[in-house]
Each structure stands twice: as C-alpha cells, then as structure tokens.
Specification:
The complex is a heterodimer of chains A (377) and B (121). With 377 residues, chain A is an alpha+beta fold. Helices cover 20% and strands 33% of the residues of chain A. Classes of the chains: A alpha+beta (377), B alpha+beta (121).
Chain lengths: 377, 121
C-alpha cells in the first residue's frame, strides 16, 4: 500500500504559484515553478530564490541537567564534529557516522543557548530521530519538531530582502543563528544554506510559514525556486547530497569532508574520537584512503549523470571510479559532476573517461566548488 | 506533408521515404530548457520503440523513441551548439533526427494531429 504524500504548510502556495509537484522523501514537493529549473537556478545566483525545505527533519535536544554542555558532549558520541565548542547562536555541519566509518546522514547542528537544534535530511529523519533518541535519552529529551516549517532564502539579494522584514539580519555572519520576528512570526534565522550563495534558512511554526513566505515573495528580487534548481545549485557549490555523494558506504575522509572534523575531535585533540567508527576515520586521516570524492568537468556538452562509470583509459579497460551526482550546471554553462575515484586518479587535472550511453567521454578532475561561494564570513 | 504523433510525444514528418523526427511542443515544455541532445550514429538501424536520440534538461536525460523502424540518416547539427532550439521551435527548426522508414504500415499505428492534441489536452 502506498502512503499518501505528506504536504508542507506551503503546499497551497506552491499550487497557487503554478509549481509542478513531485513525490520526494514522502512529501509532495515543488520540483519547479513556471520559470523552470534553468531560470530559477540563475535567479538564485543573481537575485534571491525562496525554497520550501519544510520536509527536512528538525530535532530539539534539551539536556535534562539544564546544562547545554551535557547535550553537546552527548551528541559528540554520534558525530565527529566539535559540538562542545559550538558557541550559542552558532551553527555547524556534521555527519552521523556508523561503526564501520560510513555516514548515516549529514546534518546541521545549532547551539540555541539552552538546547541543540538539528536539521536532518527528510528521507533519513525517522531513522535519525530513533538513533539520537536511543543514544541521548538518558541525558537529554529528544523531540522531533513536526510542527515546524523551514524555508531558505538564497542569493546575493537575500540580505536586502530579509532586511526589509527585520534589519537585524544584516549583522549576522555565515553560520550565525538568531531568534527574531519576521512579518510578525517568531522565527529561528540562520545565515546558511545549500546553494553556495549568501542567504538564510528560516524556521518557524507551521502556522506562520505562509505569512513569512508571502512577505518574502513580495520583495522585488525574490522568486520561488524548486527542488530541481536546488540540486543543480548545490552541485555547482560542491555540496554533497546524502544518498548520492555520501552514504553508509562512504567515510567522511573518502567523502573529502575532513573539514567537518574539527581539531578537537581529531587524533591528538582534546576530545579526539568517541564517535562511531572513530578508529577507522583516524586511520584514514593518517594513512589516506583508496578512493576520494572529487569534482569532475566534462570536456564536451553531454551531461555526465550519477551512476556513470569512470575509466582511466579511453578504451574503458581500467576502472577508475563512479559518478555520484551530475547535471548541467547553468552558472558554469556546462556539465558538472562529482564522484569517487581511486586516489591515484584524484589529483586535480587528471583526465578520465566517463561511460555515457556506451561512449567514453573525456572528463577532468577539478577542484570543488565549481562556483565560488559568496558566504558573508 | 503528413505529420504523425506518438503517445511518447514524438512527432514524425514523412518526406518521401524518409522521416524527420522531433519532440512535440507539449514535450519540450514539460522537459524545460534543453541543454544537450544527441542521436544514434548515422547508419544505425533502430526498431520502432528503440531509443534513437536523447534530450537532456538541467536535471535529467530523456530518451526519444523511434516512432518507426528504420536507419538513422542524420542528427540535426544545429542542436550541437544550441540544443535549446528544441524549446524555441520544437516542431520545426528543432527537429532531432532524420531516418528511413523501413515499413510504412507502421505509420498507421501512429496518431494524427487531432488525436494527439486531444491526448495532451
């Protein structure tokens, strides 16, 4: 039996805006609006795009002791990121690791002062909640915030558009988080996102989501953007999609996510290890890995998609890896992809061949991101 | 000049013993901006329903199925540098592939313009 698709509080607005809705992680979500993926992508890079990401999971972790450090230390047993060192009003990227060093999801962690807020992927949220609840229940209350929506405002015009609702957002820096009223709705605003552009993610109770979304859409440079452009934007920004570029079979080191393991959690650090698979990750940090996630740029115009096999030779005899995400990059003006390649083929500039419809197309290993980030640090 | 349509949203224009094949305006609109297209190599024999070409949007690749059995004669070279021509003029300059018609009786199983228009509303 098929479960009926869930709807976010902005469902009616999407329909009103002419969105094409598709099933995604159990939700009926807008993949694009009448402007189309290409125009929505470029609008986000030049002005500001408004995204509904209310399908994502939001989890509140409250320390039973009342001491936030207890919650932070408890969460560090599940993620390699430095949570204890995360200051109030700050956000950080993290991954949940498994005993064999794989990744069971990636997430954003915010120190809300008296509690921690996790934002996790929609497809993983039930499993993530169970995982966190089981591990932290002794020391913390763990709560799925089902009644909360999340929208993202991304692009160079995002600041001006949000300032029109509350001037306080101008002073925020990348990964700052603050509670404030927008259009009369209490919101949690972070200066972050998934496009490589400056911008904000805005959480609020479901009831207030449409008010805030409409107030933002009323700003001159803001247009709605669907999941289609969200994917091409994040790919150009070199950001991983869980389930494609990282998963249970990839470690943070193979995934080129060492930057998400701060010094305090690395071998020799004050709180080194202590998370699932820590020894495997430590060994990989020291010795390297046999494969690595890299950026790939096709020489021709044919997009190289996720799943394409990579070879070291034009004859396709020497397997070198596999593409995990690929699309036409509207801002790059050509095909962009990410994938895993054997470490001896991972150096920038290495020429490989991707199998596309039986043809071997030349691609080059390139540095990520494809489009430079414009975060306000 | 007779034009036929398929339920997979291809059109086929009969020119003597040959067919010019493309995608309908409805399909082009559904796919969004097309960024790349290519066809099977000239000389390749394709059966009715086989993939004869591909069109790609930002997000996905879509197969174009041969409306009839025949040999690929040519790809529309204008699409090499400007695949979005398919969006601008899908049933004209944005044709995709020229092929032979091996068995003209297959045309009888295709739709005429009125039937196709009714199908896509």
């Amino acid at each position: 039996m098929t479960q009926p698709l869930l709807r976010t509080p902005l469902y009616d607005l999407h329909i009103e805006l002419g969105a094409r809705m598709v099933p995604f992680a159990g939700y009926d979500m807008p993949v694009q609006y009448p402007a189309g993926v290409m125009a929505e992508h470029l609008h986000t890079r030049t002005k500001a795009g408004l995204f509904d990401v209310s399908h994502m999971g939001q989890v509140r972790i409250r320390p039973r002791s009342g001491n936030i450090a207890d919650a932070a230390h408890a969460l560090e047993a599940l993620v390699p990121a430095d949570i204890a060192g995360l200051k109030p009003g700050r956000q950080r990227y993290a991954v949940f690791t498994t005993d064999d060093g794989g990744i069971s999801d990636d997430l954003m962690v915010t120190n809300m002062g008296e509690w921690l807020l996790l934002v996790v992927n929609a497809a993983c949220k039930a499993a993530d909640f169970a995982h966190v609840h089981k591990a932290l229940n002794a020391t913390c209350t763990v709560e799925m915030l089902d009644g909360r929506a999340l929208i993202a405002l991304q692009g160079p015009a995002a600041e001006a558009a949000l300032v029109a609702l509350n001037p306080a957002v101008a002073a925020m820096r990348f990964m700052d988080v603050a509670e404030m009223a927008l259009a009369g709705v209490n919101c949690i605003v972070s200066r972050s996102g998934y496009t490589g552009e400056d911008g904000y993610e805005i959480g609020m109770a479901n009831e207030g989501a449409e008010t805030v979304a409409r107030a933002l859409l009323a700003q001159p440079d803001v247009a709605p953007v669907g999941l289609g452009a969200r994917d091409s934007l994040r790919l150009e920004a070199g950001l991983c999609l869980y389930g494609a570029d990282i998963d249970l079979t990839t470690t943070p080191v193979e995934g080129a996510l060492e930057w998400s393991i701060q010094k305090s959690r690395k071998p020799g650090g004050a709180r080194a290890g202590g998370y699932p698979g820590a020894q495997i990750v430590a060994d990989q940090l020291a010795d390297g890995t046999t494969r690595r996630r890299v950026g790939l740029r096709a020489e021709g115009r044919a997009p190289v998609r996720g799943g394409a096999e990579l070879f070291a030779d034009e004859a396709g005899q020497m397997p070198a890896g596999r593409v995990t995400s690929g699309a036409f990059g509207p801002s790059v003006g050509g095909p962009v992809a990410m994938g895993y390649v054997a470490t001896d083929h991972a150096a920038v500039g290495t020429r490989l061949f991707a199998s596309v419809r039986g043809r071997l197309l030349p691609v080059s290993v390139v540095a990520l991101p494809f489009v430079a980030a414009t975060f306000k640090r | 000049m007779t034009v036929y349509y398929t339920k997979e949203h291809e059109w086929l224009r009969v020119e003597g013993n040959e067919a010019v094949v493309g995608i309908t305006a409805h399909a082009a609109n559904e796919l969004g901006e097309i960024v790349f297209s290519e066809a099977r190599d000239p000389g390749t024999t394709v059966e009715q329903g086989d993939s004869v070409a591909v069109v790609e949007s930002v997000k996905a690749a879509s197969d174009i199925y041969a409306p009839v059995t025949g040999d690929v004669l040519a790809f529309n070279d204008a699409l090499t540098d400007d695949a979005a021509l398919i969006n601008r003029d899908p049933e004209g300059e944005g044709w995709i592939v020229r092929m032979t018609i091996a068995d003209a009786t297959q045309l009888e199983g295709l739709m005429d313009h009125a039937t196709y228009t009714a199908l896509v509303g």
